[in-house]
Amino acid sequence: MAKAEGRGSYRFFTPETNERLHEQFQLEQDLRLALERDEILLHFQPRVDLRDGRILSLEALVRWQHPQQGLIPPGRFIPLAETTGLILQLGPIVLDLACRQLLDWQAQGVPVVPIAVNLSANELFLDGLAQRLGNTAEGFGIAPEMLEFEITESAAMRSIERAVAAVTELRQRGFSIALDDFGTGYASLSYLNRLPVNSLKIDRSFLAEIDERPELPYQATAILKAIIGLGDNLGLARIAEGVETEAQRRFLLAHHCTVAQGYYYCRPLPAEQLEPLLRAGRVEPGG
Ligand code: C2E
Ligand code: MG
Ligand code: MG
Ligand code: MG
Fold it and tell me: What positions does the domain EAL occupy (predicted)?
């Protein structure tokens, strides 16, 4: 490393950087094609009532079926889609897929629950967003109560004024809004009063502190408890992300957070695999 950065070397243009740039460029070209070639698909993760495992809603999580590389997770292409502006094409595709899935399930007699769709910051601040989302739902004949949109706390903090305006418009159209990854942004809490969201999604990093140890250090749980309490006091629903263990489930129930999603209940699944669970209406923890 020290040697590679020594005198006479191209510190910012090593063969590795070159390769990475090339890869990113290639991925961008591939993504452009993917958007026209039906390579984008959704997996769905249930949000469950921790008391009885009942499925309350689903989160739609995008995947890319790459012809050579296989299934690519959003962490590898959403940031790219955001920096290249391709997110403005990808976002509508995701919403269309979610709406179509609701209609498919309805047609098959599968009991449906609302679907939550993630919005990126670039989409949140787009003029006419509420209009577009409203038109899409209406075009599919889907009631706005069947759709929720997740915006991240860090996106909202980019411009609280515009986030308030966008969320207000979406609420007026009957959509629910969740504040995603809550607790990870550099948020001053005063903005929360003004942002008319329905729920807080407690970031998974807070829950990760809780494991099977019987005695937890106070600090490990203090912030988690404070966030749950804050949501409670503001009259917001709380959804815990990333429940992986029975100890975490018990902790949440003991602290008045009754809704969660996580591998302990169910990984994000393709629609066909979710169907039996939707028919049953519930999932078994640990299964
Ligand atoms: P997110 O919205 O916070 O979604 C939750 C992520 O946590 C998902 O990762 C999910 O698979 C994962 N997860 C759920 N339960 C557990 C658990 O128990 N343990 C662990 N370790 N992870 C768990 P995924 O599907 O890879 O998505 C990552 C992120 O990509 C999402 O985070 C979201 O920010 C973004 N994303 C996904 N789909 C979309 C989309 O359609 N549009 C936009 N703009 N962003 C999306
Ligand atoms: Mg989300
Ligand atoms: Mg999240
Ligand atoms: Mg997250």
Answer: 24-282
